[in-house]
Amino acid sequence: MSPSISLTINGEARAVALDDPRVTLLDLLRERLDLPGTKKGCDRGQCGACTVLVDGRRVNSCLTLAATLDGAEITTIEGLALGEELHPVQAAFIENDAFQCGYCTPGQIMSAVGLISEGSAGDDPERIREGMSGNICRCAAYHGITIAVQEATR
Ligand code: FES
């Protein structure tokens, strides 16, 4: 029998079998738990596309071994909206055109949610840019992203 871990994912308690101790949280979410909203970009901690919240803190899920997370609470982009009601950060991204192709957007939004709850940047654009610097946007939608995070912070 495979070892298993207990996770709470987007509010739902789940026992997850881990037949490979090397599986990352990113691959677990996308390939085994049918949660493809979290994106794989570089797969080496450089782009932020895979950002999720673990116990409320931002992590690169591509660098996080699932086996280390027994008992953790994971929030992914799929867990942000309440039914039809978007999370304020999601709404602010739409209102401010804070994306172009959209591939990095789930990671950007999860990072913004984490940054806002850390409370370290406030609505200061310089500090928001610094706080979001781990999330790369190849379309360079940074201006809209910063405005969206500012708006969602207020
Ligand atoms: Fe994880 Fe790029 S896919 S940081």
Would you give an account of this structure?
The protein has helices spanning 25-32, 88-95, 105-118, 125-131, 142-153; strands at 4-9, 12-17, 51-54, 57-60, 73-75. With 154 residues, the protein is of the alpha+beta class. Helix 2 (88-95) crosses helix 5 (142-153). The radius of gyration is 15 Å and the shape is globular. FE2/S2 (inorganic) cluster (FES) binds next to loops. It comes from Allosediminivita pacifica. One of its GO terms (molecular function) is 2 iron, 2 sulfur cluster binding.
Report, as a whole number of angstroms, the end-to-end distance.
50 Å
Main sheet properties: 5 strands, mixed
What structural class do helix, strand and pairing data support? alpha+beta
Radius of gyration from the alpha-carbon trace, in angstroms: 15 Å
Helical proportion? 25-40%
Determine the strand fraction and express it as a percent band: 5-15%
Please give the CATH class of the largest domain.
Answer: Alpha Beta
Number of domains: 2
List keywords for this structure.
single chain; 154 residues; alpha+beta; Ubiquitin-like (UB roll); DNA polymerase, domain 1; 2 domains; 5-stranded mixed beta sheet; 5 strands; binds FE2/S2 (inorganic) cluster; 2Fe-2S_ferredoxin-type; 2Fe-2S; Xanthine dehydrogenase YagT iron-sulfur-binding subunit
